[in-house]
């Protein structure tokens, strides 16, 4: 490979990281919530839609996702485990919310957007982007349209909910997260333990074909070592902020190759569907907060139609119960992955 070819391969990643860092710094300076993630997502999306070559290696996002999983695992303390019995009502309501919002999305895509039945079904399913795109394409749906709809949905959820919480519920993100931890505050032995949780957890979960393995594997292993008292440390704030930049930039990179003039209609429908799902999540959160006494912001982030990684980052940055949020998103992903295809076959949808 020539030096020019090497530079061509590095330049899109460097552009994405530079744009993401700049966008995060601007959002941080302005004082917007979750600045490093939302700022990176916004700036890189603008670059992508403007035709600039931005791309990030899959393994880079994967590495940052494992950091998030380790951070989430640190949230599972004995006190949190003791409270899990109180989450039965919200977990059951999550299933009802998924059915209602998914059905509303299907009708919207069929009646208003004019999508075919298969594409409408997998675009409306409140599951992970990768899983729904892959299965939907295998069963005859429009892969490009499904992926764009889900990317737009996650964008809408990640961007709107933190701002709404800041304006309405008074939830704000302190610098770097709920507590600022420096690089020096974590010992070498703790770095080794946390690193082992990230690497081993992701590897084992991947071999077992667990959905969202990069988050769930490290999260479970990190929860185990923290509950056993092997360590009480978590990844430092600087590393977590860098992970937010990468995750936000990755969301923006998903819009590369989608000329705005050609896909504006699909993006608009995805934004409307995302707003509908956020509205259903908000309505469910208001009712459940009154019924259970759990904080509205916590339930809303647990029900938000964003990705597990993205909404967990929001929870960590806003100081909301990250264990509750991660558990509910994990339950949603597992339910959708297990039920989407059988339900699809029962309904007998055809293109």
Describe, in plain words, how this protein is organized in 3D.
- The chain has 351 residues and is mainly alpha-helical.
- Helices cover 75% and strands 0% of the residues.
- The chain contains 15 helices and no strands.
- Helix 13 runs parallel beside helix 15.
- The longest helix has 33 residues, at 260-292.
- It is globular and about 55 Å long.
- The N and C termini lie far apart (44 Å).
- 48% of the residues are buried.
- Residues 173-179 have low confidence and may be disordered.
Strands, helices and their partners?
Layout: H1 3-30, H2 35-49, H3 58-73, H4 78-83, H5 88-112, H6 117-124, H7 129-138, H8 143-169, H9 188-207, H10 213-227, H11 237-253, H12 260-292, H13 296-303, H14 308-318, H15 322-347
Which structural traits does this protein have?
single chain, mainly alpha, globular
* SS-derived structural category: mainly alpha
How many beta-strand elements?
Answer: 0
| Share in β-strands | under 5%
- Overall pLDDT score: 81
What portion of residues is helical? over 70%
Q: Which residues form runs of ≥5 with pLDDT under 50?
A: 173-179
What's the domain count?
1
Radius of gyration: 20 Å
The outline comes out as: globular
**What is the number of helices?**
15
